[in-house]
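Researcher: We plan to redesign the surface later, but first we want a full-length starting point. Tokens attached.
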């Protein structure tokens, strides 16, 4: 139980959207090399943390039933890894509450973003003198996407996801996220790849706004999309729904099955989301904006 409700603080775990994702090789240890342009949205999960008499973990929200409550949950892995790194005395018990608003295994970094939010939250809750570089090194031990989610701002990631370059002056984008209600395992998608040594991303435009970004995206790919669609054909239905709703550009994010559509304004995105949700009431549909 939470010892003091007043001490509870909240951290947000935004969805990660891979606007472009090129697979450029594979290391001898099996990890794939990528180049990706990623943004983070105002919509996502929520993490509440408070001091407690003993460690606790609870989950609520529309996707709570799909979230494991044991050590396989990346949020708890993050807590335990940070505690080992700093020593138990410096890391007393906490209650962690996760509001799960993002679908699980959906290509938008939900679990990784939860882990990153727990790291940020516990560093503050425990009053740790742990700088960004130390947090990033710890995040990299948790998964390839966690360092990106720890940054949670527009960036290009290379290598296995650990080489990060911020993209400044990135305009906020109107986005609609759509998932047809199917979980897709990243490992299955990478195994299904026909080619793993593709070219990298082209140089970004000098000024990043809707039209220039859309033109740039037309020259890029998500190299995982073809493989993911062979595993889960409903991804194609999600992309078609976004096109019919008037998106200026559509693509699958990450390893799927979540797809995104770009819109020139937040109001256009909201209207499109309402239309898609009306036609597909069982799908995950969210209108949002990217964080700058």
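Model: Full-length starting sequence:
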């Amino acid at each position: 139980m939470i010892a003091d409700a007043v001490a509870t603080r909240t951290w947000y775990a935004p969805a990660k959207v891979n606007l472009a994702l090129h697979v450029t090789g594979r290391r001898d240890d099996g990890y794939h090399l990528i180049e990706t342009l990623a943004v983070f949205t105002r919509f996502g999960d929520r993490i509440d943390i408070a001091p407690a008499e003993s460690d606790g973990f609870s989950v609520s929200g529309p996707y709570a039933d799909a979230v494991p409550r044991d050590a396989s949950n990346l949020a708890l892995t993050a807590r335990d890894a940070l505690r080992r790194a700093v020593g138990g005395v410096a890391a007393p018990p906490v209650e962690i509450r996760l509001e799960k608003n993002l679908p699980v295994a959906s290509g938008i970094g939900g679990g990784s973003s939860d882990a990153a939010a727990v790291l940020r939250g516990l560093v503050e809750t425990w009053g740790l003198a742990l700088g960004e570089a130390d947090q990033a090194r710890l995040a990299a031990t948790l998964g390839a996407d966690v360092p990106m989610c720890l940054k949670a701002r527009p960036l290009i990631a290379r290598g296995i996801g650990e080489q990060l370059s911020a993209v400044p002056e990135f305009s906020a984008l109107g986005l609609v996220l759509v998932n047809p209600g199917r979980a897709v395992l990243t490992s299955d998608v990478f195994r299904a790849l026909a080619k793993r040594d593709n070219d990298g991303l082209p140089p970004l435009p000098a000024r990043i706004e809707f039209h220039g970004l859309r033109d740039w995206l037309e020259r890029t790919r998500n190299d995982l999309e073809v493989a993911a669609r062979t595993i889960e054909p409903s991804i194609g239905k999600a992309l078609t729904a976004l096109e019919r709703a008037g998106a200026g550009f559509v693509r699958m994010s990450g390893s799927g099955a979540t797809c995104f559509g770009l819109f020139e304004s937040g109001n256009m995105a909201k209207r499109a989301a309402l239309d898609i949700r009306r036609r597909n009431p069982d799908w995950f549909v969210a209108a949002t904006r990217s964080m700058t």
